[in-house]
Each structure stands twice: as structure tokens, then as C-alpha cells.
Specification:
This protein is mainly beta. It contains one helix and 15 strands; from the N terminus they run αβββββββββββββββ. Strands 14-13-12-9-15 form a five-stranded antiparallel beta sheet, with no helix packed on it. Residues 1-29 form the signal peptide.
């Protein structure tokens, strides 16, 4: 079989061009296909089904769902895509009536106060006590973004910030 050298040169020239086209494709952000509530914390989110643990969801909280695979659901609960097992979540149907927001009580503070921070692990803006009630807005790993609803110190009511979710007991 005889090869045409010009055709081979042309093919070799096209390979880098084709590769650059594929690597420069703009990524489109995935949209969630549904929502679920983690009802049995702590619940591990894994890199792959049955794989290494990416993070643990430590409180009852809502999460986005992007799809499923053999009893595992794809979620961004850790700030990046991972898998959570179906036994740990309750799917929220689009035709179900919307549940109220997730509400949490501050618990297990033995000394001092729970810091309400401007950002996860950031500067403290206020302190919360056992008995404060907060609304869960979102969660990143073991940090919960909350709005203070009520508590022993009315001066903190309405404030928003981040707290360590290990000190929250949540329910919807």
C-alpha cells in the first residue's frame, strides 16, 4: 500500500487544530434536575459511587440533584460534584407542595458562644447561644450559611452568616 506524503502532512497539521478546538469549548454550567433533603446525617458524599469520601453532610439540609446512577445521586453538596446514596436522601417531587424552610436550633455549646462568621472560617460578626433558632440558607461541607430567627439575644435576630454545622440540630 502506498501513502501519499502530502495527505499525511495534511493530517498531521489538522490534529493540533482539532485538539485546540475541543479544548477551547466553553463549559456550560449544569442545571439541577431536582432537589432532595439529606434526612439521616452524617451522610457521606463520594467522588464515585462507593468511592473515596469527598465530604460529609452533617445536618438535615436540602441539596441539588443532577442525575442518578444505580441508587446513587449526583449532587454538588460539597461545592463540587459527587455521589450520595439514595438511602440518605428524600427526593422532593416537583408536584409535591413545597416544604417550609429548614430550621435549626443551636445546641451543645458548652462554653462561650457559637461564632456567626462573615464567611466560612472567616471573621466573627456575632455569637450565638444554645437556644438560638436559625434558618438554613445553604451549606458548604461543615459550614452552614444561616439567618438568625430568634433567640435569647434579640440583637442578633435577622443577622446572616456562617456557623459550624456540628452545633446545629435541623428539621423542616
Amino acid at each position: 500500500m502506498k501513502f501519499n506524503k502530502n495527505l499525511v502532512k495534511f493530517g498531521i497539521t489538522l490534529i493540533p487544530v482539532a485538539l485546540s478546538l475541543f479544548t477551547n469549548i466553553t463549559k456550560v454550567a449544569a442545571q439541577p434536575s431536582g432537589q432532595a433533603v439529606v434526612f439521616d446525617p452524617p451522610s457521606n458524599v463520594r467522588v464515585t459511587p462507593n468511592g473515596a469520601v469527598l465530604c460529609s453532610v452533617r445536618t438535615v439540609s436540602p441539596i441539588n440533584i443532577y442525575g442518578s446512577q444505580n441508587g446513587w445521586y449526583v449532587t454538588d453538596a460539597c461545592g463540587e460534584m459527587g455521589y450520595i446514596h439514595s438511602s440518605q436522601i428524600r427526593l422532593q417531587s416537583n408536584n409535591q407542595p413545597q416544604r417550609g424552610p429548614v430550621v435549626c436550633d443551636v445546641i451543645n455549646i458548652e462554653r462561650g458562644q457559637l461564632a456567626l462568621r462573615f464567611s466560612p472560617n472567616g471573621k466573627s460578626r456575632a455569637g450565638l447561644d444554645n437556644g438560638n433558632t436559625v434558618r438554613l440558607l445553604s451549606q458548604q461541607r461543615n459550614w452552614a450559611n444561616v439567618r438568625v430567627i430568634q433567640g435569647p439575644n434579640p440583637a442578633v435576630n435577622g443577622l446572616e452568616g456562617w456557623v459550624n454545622s456540628d452545633y446545629l440540630s435541623c428539621h423542616d
